[in-house]
Amino acid sequence: MKRNSEHILSEWLVVNCQLGDSYALQQLMKIWYPKLLRYAFRQLGDEQRAQDAVQNTFEVVSKTIRKLKDPGSFAKWVYQILQNKGVDIIRQKQRQDRLCDEYVHFQDVHAAEQPRLDDGPEDFYFEQMLSSLEPQLYQLVHLHYLEGFSMLEISDLLAIPTGTIKSRLHQARKLIQNSQIGETL
Predict the structure, then answer these.
(1) What pLDDT, on the 0 to 100 scale, is given for residue 60?
(2) Residue 115 above 50 pLDDT?
(3) CA 152/CA 154 separation, integer angstroms
(4) What pLDDT score does 117 carry?
(5) Cα separations in angstroms, 55 against 31, 164, 174
């Protein structure tokens, strides 16, 4: 890797971080955040997941930077961490998608097996609104609003960060709200 002024500055900041300078760590993150975010976005194809990967990377960096033996190898080290965090997020998404598919399949099988009770027009309308949601959003809405799980419990259950759950529930509420407006027009 060619050394330029930015890499020399990063190396100096790493040394200061290893000496316990928290301001140096902030500056290091400020320099590297845009680069790592671009890389993670290309790797993951999703801005939220890219941000999560970079955040997770900086968490590891802040905890283990003192163990880095060669401050000049910071760039390689931080990209390796980011690569691993990106792979973790991809695996997590695959597990989540598989669970979501299994959940949807389970719902479809049980809906076909059980006779449908007439719950009234309000319940039918609510179910119709929920059925228009994509499976991942439906799963979260069902677990949180219909089953009463807290966001922390859902986070543990599905291995999704609580911030992601909050944003997806917000997205689901907006979609439901927009479908209600569309129905009344």
Answers:
(1) 94
(2) no
(3) 5
(4) 46
(5) 14, 13, 27
